[in-house]
Amino acid sequence: MKKLTSGVVITSLLLAAPAAQASHEFEDFAKVTDVRPQYEKVNLPRKACFTETIPERKRRHGGLVGPLVGGIAGGVLGAQVGKGSGRVAASAAGAAIGAIVGDRMSDRRGEKYSDDYYEREVRRCRMVDHWETRVVSYQVAYEYRGHSQTTILPYDPGSRLLLRVAIEPIEQTTYSDGDWDQ
Q1: CA 162/CA 182 separation, integer angstroms
Q2: Which of 75, 81, 98, 112 could bridge 70 with an S-S bond, Cβ 3.0-4.6 Å?
Q3: Where are the domains of the chain?
Q4: How far apart are the C-alpha atoms of 74 and 59, rounded to whole Å?
């Protein structure tokens, strides 16, 4: 098995050798004559925040008129409904319910807020467009052995550009009159 494997390797190398010799590639430098950056506009939205001061009405704390009147009225009604020892419990329940109803009624009439104002800071944010101009590539003009070429590269090559040069024979064309001028 070892002889078969080494034979396959040797045969592969012998067959690849003429192909390697037929490819005449080498590296050389060309003179860069012009470099022009190629730009692109890109939108990168950002979050922009600011603080705003807004006026707000002060809230009344402990407005007692509504709950007090409601509690008294509820207690009186509860005392009239209850009889005997249940009269105290009915008065207490009526006073509690009356106080709650009185508080709700005073909220509906706007007694919850005073006429005084204060300033409150509110932070607001929103997305805004942010456009940037970026270099995406370079258009490079160069000269190699008297021939001018242009290419697009992802980088600025500087004053010299490394090239891979390939030499291949061209099929000759014979002219009808038999002349072949170089």
Answers
A1: 29
A2: 98
A3: 25-42+135-167, 46-128
A4: 26
Question: Which residue bears the tokens 């258009």?
Answer: 139
Q: For residue range 121-169, what is the model confidence (pLDDT) as tens digits?
A: 999 999 999 999 999 999 999 999 999 999 999 999 999 999 999 988 8
